[in-house]
Amino acid sequence: MYDAHTMNLNHLRYFYEVARAGNMRRAATRIGISQPALSKQIQALEDTIGLQLFYRTPKGLQPTADGAVAYAHCEKIFGHLRDLETSLDARRKGSAGRLTIGAVHSISTAILPHYLRRYRDSYDKVRVKIVTVRSRQVLRALEEHKVDIGLVAEQPPGDQFVWRPFGKTPLVVVASPSSALATAAAAGSISGEALHRSDMVAFDPAAPTRRVTDRYLAELGIEPRIMAECPSIDTIKELISEDMGFAVLPSHSVESEVKLGRLVVVPVKDWSLERTLYLVHLSGPPLAPTVRHFADLFPTLPA
After folding, report:
1. Across 10-160, where does the E strand assignment appear?
2. 179-220 confidence digits (pLDDT tens)
3. Which residues contact 288 (CB under 8 A, 6 or more apart)?
4. Are residues 267 and 129 in the same domain?
5. Whole domain around residue 140: which residue ranges?
6. Which of 93, 114, 145 represents a domain boundary (last residue)?
């Protein structure tokens, strides 16, 4: 009984080229072997499958009925192989495949779209997935191989990560246009003391921005009244738009609300607070081309 597993793919390639050329000599030249060697390979294939594949005619070689069936299947086989080679080559070059990005909310909404637009201009066949979570959850997702690369708001700990700072964003005091702080600021910058004992809506203590803000306010001797804590920047913006207090938020995260007049940035004398943003990935294995091309879009700031 004939065993299909004994069929040699090279024999099929030789048969396919001979059938395409209709001539043993032309096929041998195209393949790069001698005509006698090619003839032996075709004979070996016919012996293996137990069927005659060609008629020898004065005009050249013509496929038999069995040969025509074999040729039709070879068209599909080698077409799929060409598709496979093209697909693997695209993945090798990073022009196709998948990219999963983990990012904190403020980066995901206000910064990431710019970089994704540039990325898609060159690699539009890469499927991109965005996971928006807290910084520590981004790092956990990296460790669990659920995301390929992360954009976070605090320096990652541990040797398992490779990171670099790619940007700095000011943290600004934001309030409702109808708030007492905004009214006081209409005449110019207010003093930091004006924030002391003022109502504040803050991130929850686990948020990197909250920890940076708490340290800075403590250095200035300012102790606001925390009226509400929340992990969601969107909820915080809604609360302060209802004049429930001020908040300290990344400047890029409130640009649209400020333009619409729903919020105002309150100028505070000698206020100088910023947050460093980091691009992070695992220290090994090497980045896939799709990930490396995305990472290469980001600048590197001094640590």
Report:
1. 54-57, 60-63, 97-103, 126-132, 149-152
2. 999 999 988 999 999 999 999 999 999 899 999 999 999 999
3. 94, 97, 148
4. no
5. 97-166+277-295
6. 93
Helix (H, G, I), strand (E, B) or coil at 15: helix
Residue 232's CB is within 10 A of a number of other CB atoms, namely: 12
How many Cα atoms are found within 13 Å in the side-chain-facing hemisphere of 215?
Answer: 10
Average pLDDT of span 273-284: 94
> Strands 126-132 and 97-103: what pairing?
parallel
Q: Comparing C-alpha atoms, which of 153, 174, 166 is closest to residue 261?
A: 174
Tell me the pTM: 0.70
> Based on the domain organization, do 182 and 43 belong to the same domain?
no
Residues 113 and 144 grouped into a single domain: yes
CA 99 to chain centre: 4
Question: How far is the CA of 168 from the CAs of 250, 273, 277, in angstroms?
Answer: 10, 10, 6
Mean pLDDT over 12-38 rounds to 89
- Contacts (Cβ under 8 Å, ≥6 apart) of 39: 24
287 in a structural domain: yes
Angle, helix 24-31 to helix 9-21, in steps of 10 degrees: 130
Hey, how many other C-beta atoms are within 10 angstroms of the C-beta on 205? Answer: 11
Q: Is residue 300 part of a domain?
A: no
More confident call, 297 vs 1: 297
Tell whether 48 and 108 lie within a shared domain.
no
Task: Dihedral sign for Cα 186, 191, 194, 196, please.
Answer: positive
At 116, the amino acid letter reads L
The answer on pLDDT for 2 being more than 60 is: no
Output the six-digit token pair for 158. Answer: 């541990």
| pLDDT per position as a tens digit, 221-231 | 999 999 999 99
Rounded to whole angstroms, how far apart are CA atoms 244 and 227? 8
Contact between 91 and 97 under an 8 Å Cβ cutoff? The reply is yes
